[in-house]
Design a protein that fits this description.
The complex is a heterodimer of chains A (about 325) and B (about 525). With about 325 residues, chain A is α/β, with parallel strands linked by helices. Chain A has twelve helices and twelve strands. In chain A, strand 2, helix 4 and strand 3 form a beta-alpha-beta unit. About 10% of the residues of chain A have low confidence. Helix content of chain B is about 40%, strand content about 5%. Classes of the chains: A alpha/beta (about 325), B mainly alpha (about 525).
Chain lengths: ~325, ~525
Amino acid sequence: MSKKKEINRRDFIRTISLTGAGIYLAGCSRPALETLPTPVANAKTATSEVTNTQTEATQSNDASPLYGDVYLSVVHGENPAEMTRRAIAAIGGIERFVPNGANVIVKPNICTDYYPYEYGATTNPEVVAAIVQLCNGAGAKRVRVMDNPFGGTALNAYKRSGIEDAVIAAGGEMEVMNNNKFRKNAIPDGFDIKEWIFYQDILDADVVINVPIAKDHGTTRLTLGCKNMMGTILNRGQIHANIYQRIADLTSRVKPALTVVDGIRTLMRGGPTGGNLDDVKMSNTIIASADFVAADSQAATLFELTAADIGYIPAAAAMGLGTMELESIKVEEFSV
Amino acid sequence: MSAATVRKLRQISQMLFFALFMYLFVQAVYLGASPLESDLFYRLDPLIAATAMIAGRTLIAGLLYALINLAAALIFGRVWCGWVCPMGSLLDWISPKKAKRGEGIPDRWRMVKLLLFAGLIFAAVLGNQTAVIADPISILTRSMTTAIWPALRKMVFGLEGFLYQFDFLWPVLDWIHANALLPLFQGIESVFISGIPIFIVFALIIGLNWLAERFWCRYLCPLGGMLGIFSRGAILRREVSDACTDCGLCARNCPTGTIDKRAGYASDPTECIYCYDCAADCPVSAISFPAHSPLRWAEKQPYDPNRRDVLRTAAGAVAGVSLLGIETITRREPERMIRPPGATLTDFTTLCMRCGECVRVCPTQGLQPSLLEGGIQNLFTPRLVPRLGQCSFTCSACIEVCPTGAIPPITIEEKQRTPIGLASIDQDRCLAWGYDTICSVCEEICPLAEKAIRQEEREVTDLNGNTFTIKLPYVLRELCIGCGACEYHCPAGGEAAIQIKTLPSTEVVIRGI
């Protein structure tokens, strides 16, 4: 028998699989996410094309008070869960928003893991839990709660905010946003940005419930419902270049079905991160509406500001995403 | 108990201790979640205990566990190397199918590990711990932290990313992600500046197995050298009885090559790792490990260092430490050598034993083992690179794990008030200052309640003659703690337009010799 070294099956398989694994690994490495347009000072805004917008807005303004007669509710009181339930009941009840078997995503503001919720930087856990319970009661198939904190890790922020414990007790799930589920999506109605990288599950969900906390913000004066949609995307730094219009553009894609503004502990200064209890005012208010523009406009009044002061509210209103004319809608305000 | 059973037990012990090492490694990031200290292997490491306490001129209670290891060496010799050390086990497992006996390598090389150990002690006396990076636990932890585990994570997440293209798999993938991958790897995509150089060193150490089996343990390992010296007087020592038929099997199979055919198959307790391979393989059961008097030391070997060798090593240590004294860091702190929180409160470089535990637990992976940023003398000491990860405001992980107190045990409240650096804005590159663009990310992100970054308003006019107001950020030196959240989040491309630099008040520490 010849002594010539022949390649045997084992060597062959080993070589092939190693090569294959190498090629495969090289191939499956995720391409770097594209960098989005460099910010410029004179970026396009809805207000710069105001004539065009207003026509569109009047044509497609399906946010006009079609449902029932209460367009927005404002509830004062001491019990956040009860206030939340009553606020939603006043605008038609959870069933109006959450059909049986719906896949629901609740998006609170869990911006950092710096401080617990008493500091007014993250949404009140009782409010979030009450919404989760309502959704479950309405027969939702799945209720997930998530945010993409910018300070600290999501796991820590979920715990520290108290939201994780409250949500799990209420029968919901906390999801740590997974980088693999961010995808580039078109923003058909966007003025300045025509596409962005969104969390796909949020766009695909049957119902998105927006649960911002109303608080001071260094850049935009206040962060409210529209601004809360910043937690659904990647490359947030790039939004700041033309922040008001870009926030409005983002909301035009996510379009939460229901917005519940937590105005219980309002951070009056030092936002969005907070850290000083002296800056927190007990405003004890919950605002609910299907129209996030209206909800934000109402919430601005908690800070003795008007919608026009908060750049992204007029921008969103100009796009026909809702109304900032609080006089033209029916507001039900009560205490519990 | 038969010798074959003992060998089996040794193999099981190696697997269990390696599994324990990996378990501690993974759970280290869940501070205090496990009853076992994540630095358990360091605590059992007498080399690190000795150098840290000598160089730091302090008694570190946590490291006194290492006395257990020394006591074990006085009874069982280098049982640590054969039965426990996860690095040694890896070297056993990753080796050529037909083990190399290292016949071409002179026996005198065995002296290297002993002299390396002596050199480390001399350097520690001079207050220097630079060469402690050669400790095996430290090598394995560092390689695992910065290269092997992150590469594994890349591999797994790469596969996951590929599968996530198929939407119908999402429910399953979500479950795996939440229940297996997140707990194991966390959500961070860690990157390490020094990862690949560290891996190359690790791969070389493994690669030496192709010259001689357990090359590292035979010739180089300073911990092995230290334990070897204590094994001189080990109670249980290997002996060959008259039943020996001179078959030579034991000498051929010995992983450390210490069984000498010419000396009647006797071995040196300094080299023997109690693996029991010889005893288990011996066809006539001529090998046993009977008790000896610890006072009767093992015979001297030709490769043992003599007094002159030791003196030369001492001189080498003095020369080496002096040479490090010409590095520029002894005159000026580099502006980007940001240490972990509180490290400015201690004599960091003499206390730090380069163990890499802080790097392992840093949840943002902003702590990186330095390469040459702080000079050779600071090789692999931790350095915060805020552009890769900020010092998280509510986190004190590194403080909790530091085994020597180089990162002092301050409370989270103290940490939140202790500056580690100071932010400075590059106004030419700042979007607001340089490009009249609304940005404010740094101000927004600043975790301090009082905001160490504030903004002044200014009217600007663009090319079209439109006038608008922008906010220009500035740093309040009195408040900024240098956590680097602003630098991490700065949307300027490439290097941030706001950077953390060394504290302006940092005094130059004149280090001895």
